[in-house]
Amino acid sequence: MTYACPVFAHTTPNIIKKLQKIQSKFCKQATDAHWCVKNSVLHGDSELPNINKLMKDASKRFFDMAQSHPNPLIASAAIYEPPPAHHFLRRPRNILSDPPHALTSEVEKLSEAKIMQ
């Protein structure tokens, strides 16, 4: 599901929501959780990041590795200058600078609270 996610991580929020639904359904089936268990609880207990965070982390790793690649062509392709604020085209690296999704930030807060305990 996350194969080549640095490329399609900048897609529309509707597509990300659809992927999140698939991931949540799979998690419920894999853990044999009851239908009334909230997805945020399921992700927190299983320590599985939601799709948005997973894509953001994978994109960051990909671009970090590409920038330090020994091949100069790959390294130069990974150099990134953010577009102006009024620019309408989005590039795959924009996912790293976008503000976090509401669900992502809530799951991260729960994860941090769980770690502190």
Question: How would you describe this protein?
Answer:
By secondary structure, the protein is mainly alpha-helical. It has one domain (5-116). The protein has helices at residues 5-8, 13-31, 39-46, 51-67, 72-78, 94-97, 102-116. Helix 3 crosses helix 7. The protein is elongated and about 50 Å long. The protein starts with a helix and ends with a helix.
Number of domains: 1
**Could you estimate the helical fraction of the residues in percent?**
55-70%
Summarize model confidence as the mean pLDDT: 78
Radius of gyration using CA atoms only: 16 Å
Shape: elongated
Tally of helical runs? 7
Uncertain segments: none
Largest sheet: none
Give the ordered list of helices and strands. HHHHHHH
From the N-terminal CA to the C-terminal CA, the straight-line distance is 32 Å
Structural class estimated from helices and strands: mainly alpha
Strand content: under 5%
Number of beta-strand segments = 0
Keywords: Nucleotidyltransferase, RNA-directed DNA polymerase, Transferase
Protein name: Probable RNA-directed DNA polymerase from transposon X-element
GO molecular function: RNA-directed DNA polymerase activity
Organism: Eumeta variegata (Bagworm moth)
Offer a concise description of the structure.
The protein has one domain.
Main features:
117 residues, 7 helices, RNA-directed DNA polymerase, RNA-directed DNA polymerase activity
Task: Lay out the secondary structure.
Blueprint: H1 5-8, H2 13-31, H3 39-46, H4 51-67, H5 72-78, H6 94-97, H7 102-116
Helix pairs in contact: 3-7, 4-5
